[in-house]
Amino acid sequence: MDQTAERLNVYFIPGLGTDCAIFEYLNLPDAYFKLHYLEWIIPENSLESLQSYAHRMSEQIREDHFVLIGISFGGVIAQEIAKIRVVKKVIIISSIKSKHELPRRLRLVKFLKIYQLSPVIGKLNFEKLQYSGVGKLLKRKLYLYQKYMSVKDKLYLLWATKNMLYWDQSMADSNLVHIHGTNDQVFPKKYLQNIISIEGGTHTMILTKANTISNLINSILLNNDHKNNTDR
Description:
about 230 residues; alpha/beta; six-stranded parallel β-sheet; 6 strands
């Protein structure tokens, strides 16, 4: 990208229930990018469509020809916004591109309608807590959860969880780049196609692999370099 060119507007959408502080460790140069952050809004009611919600979310965007970067459920919303706005590029992180990439475990949750038991399910990150006691790693995980989990409205949590599970998209947009961790337990890699893999990355790798993700985003947006987007 020419250094004299106008800065590229980049809009970030966080994961389900989290706020935009979750992007704080990314490093995108101010010389090239103007960063914006979309905050979650409360659904109008429990039956509001995903399309209607995405339209209302998009009202926070003031520019045209922007880039959208979304994490997890934020990646789904980014893809829905891209259907109604002119977007230069969509980058999703730790997310899915269609209903076919939803893992069997979450399909079972959908089938059994377990998500209706309590809005608390919307607060879970579904990562496997493989600890025998409350050790340092678990304490760190709980700390991060408390720090970034800011949207606790019951209507929002239940609505978002349901729409994540029932998202009906069947094909990914060609103008999309998917960055995903090899150790993601929410959306396991084996169910995904056409991704840029980050070795050892988990569903929360936006915090733990921020430098690697930053370098990838810079390369994709500045050099249009996403040739590795064929990994499986």
